[in-house]
Design brief:
Elements: H1 9-60, E1 68-72, E2 75-79
Antiparallel strand pairs: 1-2
Length: 110
């Protein structure tokens, strides 16, 4: 069951004020949302400019490969990959086990 109550003049005035406050609050939320979206775009743009700046500095210094780079305390800190170790070829006798006798070397019998 549903009932309807008519609002008197005072109640209608209060309702208009509440609705106006709600409309203003919604407008503020909308404006803040737009500001947040613009702020995110500005942040993304600034981050991309910083990455480009870092790549340019590294390129000017002849650094072609790096793992991570960033600015800290006014200096560029770069993580470089470990240099590839060249394998050392084994010596001819490496891997050959020398047998030793417990009682010493074999003596030749005549």
């Amino acid at each position: 069951m549903e009932k309807t109550f008519q609002l008197d003049q005072k109640e209608q005035s209060m309702l208009a004020q509440v609705e106006q406050e709600r409309t203003q609050a919604l407008a503020a939320v909308g404006a803040l949302s737009l500001d947040m979206e613009q702020a995110r775009k500005n942040l993304d743009t600034a981050a991309e400019r910083q990455r480009t700046f870092i790549r340019q500095i590294l390129s000017n210094r002849g650094v072609e490969r790096f793992e991570n780079a960033g600015i800290r305390n006014g200096a560029l800190v770069v993580s470089m990959p470990d240099p590839a170790l060249t394998p050392v070829p084994p010596t001819p006798m490496e891997g050959v086990h020398k047998m030793e006798r417990v009682n010493g070397p074999i003596e030749a019998k005549e």
